[in-house]
Amino acid sequence: MTEEQVHLGVLTFLRMVLPSAAAATLQHSPNESPSGYGWRAKMQRLGTMPGWPDLEFVYNERAYFVEVKAPKGRVSAVQLATHRHLTHAGARVGVARSIDDAQALLEAWELPLRAKVAA
Q1: Which one-letter DSSP state was computed for residue 49?
Q2: φ/ψ bin of 93: left (φ > 0), alpha (ψ from -120 to 50), beta (otherwise)
Q3: Alpha-carbon torsion (93, 45, 37, 7), positive or negative
Q4: Per the count of CB atoms within 10 A, which of 16, 21, 63, 69 is most buried?
C-alpha cells in the first residue's frame, strides 16, 4: 500500500469519525513538491515548514496533527524535530500507517468519536 492510499483512507476515516467541529477544520498541508526544488523554495519563502505533518485539525482549543506514512515508511529527522516543536507548543502529534493507527491516536487523545472501525 502506498502512502497516498493510506493518506486517503485515513482522511476518509477522520472525516467520518471526528466530532463535527473537528472535521470542519481537518485539512492537508501539502509539503510534497512534484515540481522540484524551485517550487519547494517558493513554498518555504511563503511559510511552508519542512517536516510539517500531513493532516491537522483543531478541537476544543487544541491542535492535532497526523503524519501519514506507508506501512514501512519512516519519519524523517526533520519531521521528528517539527513534531517535537509542535508538542512543546501544546499540540498533539502522532503517526498513522493505517486506519487502525489513526483510530488508536484518536482514542489515546481521548477524543469523542462519532463511529469506530470494527475490530
Answers
A1: P
A2: beta
A3: positive
A4: 69
